[in-house]
Amino acid sequence: MAGRALTMVRFEEIRRRLAQGRSDREIAGSLKCSRKTVRAIREGGTGRGAELARGVPDPMWMGSLDWTGIKKDLSLGHPLKFIWEERAKLLTGYPNFWKQFYRKFPHLREATVTLREFAPGERIEVDWAGDKIEWLDMKTGEVHEVPVFLGALGFSQLVFAYAPEDMKSRNWLSCHRRMFEAFGGVTQVLVPDCLKTGVLICHLYDPDLNPSYSELASHYKTSIVPARASHPKDKAIIEGLVKILMRYFKWCYRMHTFTSLAEINHALADTADKINRKPHTRFKVSRLERFEKMERSLLKPLPETSFEVLEWKKAKLHPDCFISVEGAYYSAPHIHRGKDLRVKLTESHVEIFLNLERLAIHPRDRHRCGNRVRNIDHLPENSKAYFEATPQNLLSQARFISGDLHGLVVQLFNEDTLGNIRRVQGLIGVCSKEIHKTSHEAALPRIEQAIKSMQHFNRIRVSYFQELLGFLRKQNLKPDQAREITRLPNNPMIRHRQKDLGDGELSKTQSQERQESLRL
Question: Rounded to whole angstroms, how far apart are CA atoms 226 and 240?
């Protein structure tokens, strides 16, 4: 080849001139290559020298390999190096295997790439993997899919991988926190893709970042520089490592069925550790060794406090002075009813803002069952009076009726004030009726005894309280206290009296009574 390497450009130029009908001598003379190379290309070879021309026998080890299976594995996306490790590592080295494979299948050769160099501690690139990992729930038989988050340092190309439950904002931020803690530091620049959890509006010069993502950058004192939309080469390191890690993961666990998310993360960590410890083709040392020796000391230190994952949402204050967020209700000052508010959700509390002013802060309710988290000062005066006066009024009535009843009401209100208001109202109403039937002095012993019975059997119910009072009222009624009924001896309205008297006597008696009434 006259001492010159045959590049793809020169190879295509030879093929173009051969298609024009030029002779081998003319092409070899103009392009400074040997006629043997031109003749090999004309016959369908790759032109890599006389040894690659047709007619040269293959090495003996090539006959013992299943090249159809190797080609099929490569078409499924598995790296050629992994195929060599499994099928031909004991027969020949990887460089020789690589050369013979592409001599046999020249159309599968990949194009050349341009390498980019970064300073230590300068850059981290992050992205979601395109493929998801499936796992089987053994209890329900349902198959779940989880995404994979990856991060890589620009200088050492140390890789981090983690699989959260979904791709929501809180998991996106928590994955960043795990990544920084795994690396033990922070770089100067963080390069994500233009996804909504990171970038709200994509712009070449001035993109609008997600507020939660901006707070993460502020907490870790790093700068977020999103890659341009539809320009994957802006984060080529993580794009390449996504392919490497996911292909290696699928290759190692192609016969394995995952049954939990924790098992997937354990396998991802093991795969990433193997890649980090394997010698790099270009560095000649492993990624981990390059990181420990040259990059770890140049990373920014982590903050003293860990980043608290947060989300920003929008909500409108309802006329009842509550906003609805994540299946719960939180109060805000009533003077802002009908306004659009911004809500900051952290792992432990909820903050409500109007523009830059914080209106309220509440502990976060994660039950998602419609609970109301209330600050009584946020309500108007009439609502405040309702929520404040009703329990206090009931306590005052119970204290007036009986000390035991007051203690029972305090116990119920300590358990659940709003949930037991109606029950307390019923108990007080039954006591009031009992007092009106007799007197306060007479009803008080029965009320106290009934309350002790309810507490003893742990059955505090209004209907049961009524039954106890009725039973005690009948039990305490003495025979001497019973009213004796007396009848007049000559009462004409008594039936048996009318039968005993004759008609004459009855008319005589009636006439005497009529005369006495007239005299009166």
Answer: 17
